[in-house]
# Entry
Amino acid sequence: MKSNIVKGRTWVFGDDVDTDLIYHNKYLAITDPKEMPQYAFEYYPGKEHFAREVKEGDVVVAGKNFGCGSSREHAVYCLKEGGIPVVLAESFARIYYRNAVNNGYPVLVVPGVSSKFSDGDDIEINLETGEVINLTTGEKMHGDAVTDLEKDIMSHGGLIEYLKAQAARKN
Amino acid sequence: MGKTFAEKVLGKAAGMDVSAGQIVTVAPHFCMSHDNAAPIAKIFGEIGVKKVWDASRLVFILDHAIPAPTDKHAQNHKVIREFVEEQGISNFYDVTSEGGVCHQVMCEKGFALPGLVMVGSDSHTCTYGAFGAFSTGIGRTEMAATWATGQIWFKVPDSLKIVVKGEFRKGVSAKDLILKIMGDIKSDGADYMSVEFHGPAIENMSLASRMTLCNLGIEMGAKNAVCPPDEKVMQFISDKAKSSEWEAIWSDDDAYYEKVLEYDLSDIEPGVAKPHTVDNYATVAESKGIGIEQAFIGTCTNGRIEDLEEAASILKGKKVAVRTIVIPASWEVYREAMKKGIMDVLLDAGCVIGNPGCGPCMGNHEGILAPGETCISTANRNFKGRMGNKESFIYLASPATVAASALKGEISDPREVL
# Structure
């Protein structure tokens, strides 16, 4: 059983981080998720070094409307496969949010979060309760609750595993 | 209290009375995928189901990179052709003169129909709302799951009503209106919502212009965008409808809206979205004189016959000052443009014409920018690096503004050359 507590360092991004900034069009023909992390945030001004320097367990913190734009799931895979345990944002674009849930990837809506962290702060997140602590400043905040269906899909590790479990239950 | 469009259509599909905020499971009428049908087929294979739930409801249209520019793209296309064969998918538009940009083909071939629930593995699937469909973009995993189960869950969205009246002034079109709306409400202004376009000006608009409006719905964060299924829609679909399950459904006058916005077309001016966000609005008057190296007319936003006609009316008898790439949204549009003599006008003006498809819109091929270059484009996205180079700049504008700018080599007001 994986722990619900995540601890790491933060990488802080602004508002309206679009899918080209997270994972550029240029690499869309790639279909193996394992090849995707090397291109994460390559086009984000000032964060071009993200893929080279990110460490397993680091956390992405962003402003509003994270993941706006395309429906590409690369933008989820490149972070999930890159060892980022969770993305926190003030809000997510609809398709990005759904793609994350459907891949069993934790994303948490935390009001005001981007102004409460700087790059390299230490963070602790309880994925079960949604509690978030900035260990560097001591400030605590809380993520929004998710629906039961989303929780159910997440707990199976994503939509495909969820469907398989449902099919197995029927048989 | 009456019902919104989204409440009515999703309620009908779910077989019960529903309200905004409720979660429903529905069977989509059509599922559209483009070149990404290849990775979706791979995910589908992992589910362990041999056959898709209903092959007649799947539509595949290659458009993102056609004909294949690299071996990786070619390999993906091959996977799709094999999957089509294996699953017996008859609605397949390969590299063929029946094809074009997926959203254009979905509309012109009669898949986009009033009252249907449609999903596509592309964010601009919201375009089909121009024909009164509830249509929305989904990711690959979700599409694979939908192929397997024939079902998808939705939260019934809140709705935003945009009422439009008045008439466009000369040189101003639907693109200018939607750029202005996005500038006002910003790129998350309709997050998760159903956007309904209402009012006499929408009824006066062509279906092509309505497609332009709905196409940009996703750029405001909307789940779907929709126009009334009126007589124009009925006439268009009368001999084309690919399904008999459609029904003209529209919101009640007393439905509840989160927000209501009103626009008068006579207030709308030629506009642009400046780099690097779609909501970075400015009027053309404010942007005049900004130098460009490339002009691009095409895409699912503005690559239709009325768009090419508008551009041709400005370029007729003149010469472009910068390289100008024109890509009709489909081969049907291409053929009509040839018949109408539009192609000759564009070629005489110095434009180059590309084969229908997405072209350089997302930086795959056929017009990638060099570092430091600026392109004015009729597309729907100007994200940093969208056209293949992160040191380049993209301004979004109407076909008229792009054509006028191509003539001068700088951002120019179409009203001055019309």
The longest strand of chain B covers residues 159-165.
